[in-house]
Design brief:
single chain, alpha+beta, Chemotaxis protein chec, 6-stranded antiparallel sheet, globular
Length: 141
């Protein structure tokens, strides 16, 4: 489980140090992909395999499933954690997320996200504002 929020610098080679507590969950590897919001979403390989399995069938037409698979898998990147606990953030993903020289790494349960500081502050405030409303709807179900 990924918890917390940590700030790190991006080095000149586009690498970022992952928090030690996150690295323990990533022994099999990590997959980076564009997030739904403008961030980078990082999945442990086991979690990514669940997503891939879910996208091999279902009630979506074959044409739509092909398009969805192209959109998701063509933009994903499996990265290696080096001996110092760093990963290279691919340039296209950094550009998508607006990440330049610093990054906020945010735990999100079974995955984590990498954010541009300003975008994260906005998203964090919005998420916190809506969280209690969402919890209230869960209580009624």
């Amino acid at each position: 489980m990924f918890l917390g929020e940590v700030e790190h610098k991006i080095d000149e080679k586009g690498r970022v140090m992952l928090p030690a507590q996150f690295r323990r969950e990533l022994r099999e590897g990590v997959v980076l992909t564009p997030g739904v919001e403008p961030c980078i979403t990082a999945y442990p390989l086991a979690e990514w395999k669940k997503i891939a399995a879910a996208l091999t069938g279902g009630s979506v037409t074959r044409n739509k499933l092909r398009k969805l698979n192209r959109a998701i898998f063509a933009t994903a990147s499996r990265v290696v954690i080096d001996g110092q606990g760093r990963v290279v953030l691919p340039l296209l993903l950094r550009e998508y997320a607006g990440i330049e020289d610093e990054v906020i790494i945010v735990g999100a349960n079974s995955y984590f996200e990498l954010w541009n500081r300003e975008r994260w502050e906005t998203e964090k405030a919005d998420s916190q504002d809506q969280a209690w409303q969402i919890i209230e709807t869960l209580d009624r179900q």
